[in-house]
Structure formats: structure tokens, C-alpha cells
Amino acid sequence: MFKSFFGCTASPFDRSISTKHLFQSEAHQELIGRMVHVAENRKFALCTGEVGAGKSTAARAVSEQLNPTRHLVLYITDSDLTPRNFYYEVLHQLGIPPRFYRGDAKRQLVKALMDMYDSNRIPVVIIDEGHLLGRDMLEEIRFLMNFKMDSFSPLSLILMGQPELRATLQTQAYEAIAQRVNVRFHLPAMTQSETAGYVQHHLKVVGVDRAVFTDDALYLIHEYSGGIARKINNLCTSCLLHAFAKSKSLVDDRMVRVVLENEFLG
């Protein structure tokens, strides 16, 4: 397929690419730095960004940077997360068979967290798709950050979601939760120059050390994607497939327009 045609050792825009090879914009680097700080210091973070901007990828990078002997990352993503499901999922990831009733499961988790605290280990709970959480689950998060009369926290908690999550927590109804947030960060889309750097970097990582996309093509890719990594990945992959089918080793702006009209804007 197109990989051998362009001399790629792997698919350059595949989401499975190792985090150590990912292009990191300035904002992406700051997000990872803040998340590491939160993870290492038992803090509570609110991280937002548009769909496909790279929040989950940042969380993956953080989990790979943390010392596994000191930190245990518990990643949870559920479009319909309830307090009961939350306790069940965390306990399962901790290797603890959860009890049936929510109250019993909650007490199990509290004991597990305190045992880890006493052994100087830090559970890092990452809740993704936080904008989909209901009121009950958001209130349960307040409980998680309120140990021993709000005197300390035995865990690190990173709540991630789309921009509406930030707006939700700014309302009066969630003031008690918002006040407990130690670190806030919104991940913006990449700039034009960062989009170009992203495309070129990912090609270089898989062994392509030459221009594959013209400057005008990169401009159109940014215009369509808005600097959102997932959109860039999808469009660039389609462009490479189209170029391969046409036996063209260079993707120009005309080719990008054809792909956009046939596959993305129809």
C-alpha cells in the first residue's frame, strides 16, 4: 500500500504511534507538564479541549512518564458513568472484587486509597469524557477530594472533557467542586505553523525525510482541520492513499481539494 510507496516504516498518522514519537505543540507540552505535576502531588486538575485536540493522547503520555513503582494510573472513560459504575471500575482496576451495594463499594475504595497512601503510592485517577458526567457523578468527585474533613487527598484526579465541562463547573451549582480544582488548562488547537510541523514530524518519524506535502497543501489541511490533530490525521491519510492511487509522490493543494470534496465535504 502507500507505506511502501512513500517509504514509510509505519502509518505516519495512526493513533497507535508511540507517545515518545508524537509531535508536541507548546500547549501540548504545557498540558503534559501540568498533568504530571498533578499526578505527582495528589492534586485535582480540570483539562479541557475540543474533540480530537489531543487530551487523551496527553493522558497516555503522562501515564508512560510516571514511575510505575510510585504511581498507579486508573483511566476511566464511560459515556454514562454513574457513581456505582465508577466505584466498580476503579476497584476492578485495583484488582479488588467490588461488593454489590454502592455504599460498600465506596468503603472498599476508601480503604484501598488509604492503604496506598500509607505505603506511599499514588493512585492517579483519570476520568475522560467528563463533559458527559451527570450531576450525581460530579458530586461524587467532590467526595473523592474531601478526605478527613478536607484536610488532604490520598489520590491524584484528572478530569478531562470538552469545553462545555469548564462552563458547567463555572455555574453556581458546582461551585464546591470548582473550588477544589488546583490546576486548570484548556488545550487549544494547533496554529498553522504547528500543523505543518506536526505533519512533517510524523512523516519523519516513520522514515520519510523529504517533503511529501507542498506548503499550499499544508495550508489547506490546516484550514480544514482547524489545527485539530484527529482531523489532520484523517485528512493526511486520505491524501496519501489518493496520491498512491495516482502514483504521485507529492501531495499538492489540488489533490487536497479533491480529497476534501470527495471524502470530507460531500
Quick overview of this protein structure:
The chain has 12 helices and 5 strands. The protein has 266 residues and is α/β, with parallel strands linked by helices.
List its salient traits.
266 residues; alpha/beta; five-stranded parallel β-sheet; 12 helices
Estimate percent helicity.
Answer: 40-55%
State the separation between the terminal residues, measured CA to CA: 25 Å
Radius of gyration: 21 Å
Number of beta-strand segments: 5
What is the N-to-C succession of helices and strands?
Answer: HHEHEHHEHEHHEHHHH
Largest sheet: 5 strands, parallel
Q: What global shape is seen? A: elongated
Which stretches are poorly predicted, pLDDT < 50 over at least 5 residues? none
Structure explained in plain terms:
The structure is a single chain. This protein has 266 residues and is α/β, with parallel strands linked by helices. Helices cover 50% and strands 12% of the residues. The protein is built from twelve helices and five strands. The chain has helices at 2-6, 26-40, 55-65, 83-93, 102-118, 135-144, 163-169, 175-178, 192-205, 215-225, 229-245, 253-264, and strands at 44-49, 71-77, 122-128, 156-161, 183-187. It has a five-stranded parallel β-sheet with strand order 2-3-4-1-5, with helices on both faces. The longest helix has 17 residues, at 102-118. It is elongated and about 65 Å long.
